[in-house]
Amino acid sequence: MKIKKGDTVLIIAGKDRGKKGKVLHAFPKEGKVSVEGANLLKKHISPQEQKQQQKGKKKTGQIVEFPAPVSISNVKLNCPKCGKSTRVSKTKEGRVCKKCNQKI
Ligand SMILES: [Zn+2]
């Protein structure tokens, strides 16, 4: 995968087009990444599940938002060296920015 956890990416397709965010998780098998603040889905946590997670702080259910994975073809890497969103090429040495030709 050309994009990995901790990278900053730009969303180039879908409802969150134009948003930038940090990659929280990479799913190499699926070719997907989850990006902070992008493609948010709401999930309802039942009181029972919550009880297991945080020992019975609240008795009501809660709705949490979490970023659903997006296909890496829908994101572009934001180069930390030149600050531009770019396609990267993979070389023996690692990833190279196509805009500034620096290793990233
Ligand atoms: Zn660059």
Number of helical elements:
1
Report the strand count.
Answer: 10
Biggest beta-sheet profile: 6 strands, antiparallel
Helix/strand/pairing category:
mainly beta
Task: Give the terminus-to-terminus CA distance.
Answer: 14 Å
Strand content: 35-45%
Percent in helix: under 10%
Return the string of H and E elements.
Answer: EEEEHEEEEEE
- Shape, per Cα inertia axes: elongated
Poorly predicted ranges: none
Bound molecules: zinc ion
Q: Output the radius of gyration.
A: 17 Å
Global mean pLDDT: 89
The strands making up the biggest β-sheet line up spatially as 6-3-2-1-7-8
Explain this structure.
With 104 residues, this protein is mainly beta. The protein has one helix and ten strands; from the N terminus they run ββββαββββββ. It has one helix spanning 47-53; strands at 8-11, 20-27, 32-35, 40-45, 62-67, 70-71, 75-78, 85-86, 88-91, 94-97. The strands form three sheets. It has a six-stranded antiparallel β-sheet, with no helix packed on it. It has a two-stranded antiparallel ribbon with strand order 4-5. Zinc ion is lined by residues 79, 81-82, 84, 86, 97, 99-100, 102.
Task: Fill in the keyword field for this structure.
104 residues, mainly beta, six-stranded antiparallel beta sheet, two-stranded antiparallel sheet, 1 helix, 10 strands, elongated, binds zinc ion
Describe the structure concisely.
With about 100 residues, the protein is mainly β. It has one helix and ten strands.
